[in-house]
Write a structure and sequence with these properties.
alpha/beta, five-stranded mixed beta sheet, about 20% strand, globular, binds zinc ion
Amino acid sequence: MSPTRRRLLGGLDLGGTKIQGVVLDGRRNVLGQARSATPTTGGAQDVILGLVSTLGSACADAGVDVGELTGVGVGSPGAIDTARGVVTGARNLPGEGAPIRIAAGLKTLGGVKGYVDNDVTVGVNAEYVLGAAKGAKSLLGVWWGTGVGGGIVLDGKVWEGRGAAAEIGHVVVKIGGAQCTCGRRGCMEAYAGRGAMEIRARRLHDRGRKTDLFKIMEKRGRTRLTSGVWARALEHDDELAIELIERALEALGAGVASAVNLLDVETVVIGGGLGTRLGEPYVERIREAMLPHLFVRENPPRVALAELGDLGGAIGAALLVPR
Ligand SMILES: [Zn+2]
């Protein structure tokens, strides 16, 4: 009698700074994991080599061969052609936004079938299927990181609109307000995105505002104000960090509450690099910041911290592999 073939799924979360890989079994238990730095030079081919090598390491950690995988899912930034598994316009990856043929590359170099979708969409879906929103019928995911991404599940189905739904970062919280990276003004992300917060921190620091943010950054050998840098500055009661985070929380409160007024979801999940790093005390601050803007104030939705942590994106990506 031949042994039953185990169902094994690969998942890769392709981020601007790191690639996180996981291997799951058929019951969605994590069997192995690996993490590597995202290539910063070269082009599409280098990104694909990085994905294949991280997948190989995750498989080695799980004690399986890449060839045994049923398939591998990839969560990626940029615009995704899910049918072809191609990513374009991901400007924080090598190649300046040129097409990256991920599915084809995984097949050729890894010998495995690949499925690609948006990184936030798969992360939110993982929280819906296995994490903080398990059992909820409707959900709004708010991924607080460099930008502010979102995901919506309504009546148990991911709502994609015409392909561009859930861009909660670009909900307007102030007409004619701060400049956003999208070219418009007053978007929530222009106040709450880590990228926007860093730009403002640099400007104020250059004008002479005192802050330890950049000292902490340098001490950690970083060139950006990472989530860890913000967390550290807040622990040290850095005035500028507190001021900018409070501004972010106010914007999040208004933007998320407005989305809730429109959709009336059961659960809001706060995830993303900064959301996960700052954790529950800041989820509580978001709950409080939402209250003045809620139309039905006496019945707010449950607001929960993402549960799957750093692995959520990769686990969600693995769930892309069809049953
Ligand atoms: Zn915007």
